[in-house]
Amino acid sequence: MKISILFFGMATDLVDSSSLEIELPNKSTVASFKEFLLAEFPELQKMSSYAVAINESYATDDILIKENDVIAIIPPVSGG
């Protein structure tokens, strides 16, 4: 299935892109997507953590990803 990925903050720098379209196996979960992402972009290990949002809603590891979902990778944000 085809999905879109949006990268924000330092994630954009680590993968050298702000967006990608990729193919995932059917019935992929957020957890399996994270494994795929780290395998494809090992530089992402430099982030201590990150949030995943699907179609503008935060997602937990057990959520199933569907065809044409838009997944955002949101690194930790600090401010002052």
Written account of the structure:
With 80 residues, the protein is α+β, with helices and mostly antiparallel strands. It has two helices and five strands. The protein has helices at residues 10-15, 30-40; strands spanning 2-7, 19-23, 51-54, 57-58, 70-74. Strands 2-1-5-3-4 form a five-stranded mixed β-sheet. The radius of gyration is 12 Å and the shape is globular. The mean pLDDT is 94.
Termini Cα gap: 41 Å
The biggest sheet amounts to:
5 strands, mixed
Principal-axis shape equals globular
- The number of strands is 5
**Order of the strands making up the biggest sheet:** 2-1-5-3-4
- Estimate what percentage of residues fall within beta strands: 25-35%
**Helix vs. strand class:** alpha+beta
Order of helices and strands: EHEHEEE
Helical coverage, percent range: 10-25%
Overall average residue pLDDT = 94
Number of helices: 2
Radius of gyration computed on alpha carbons: 12 Å
| Low-confidence segments | none
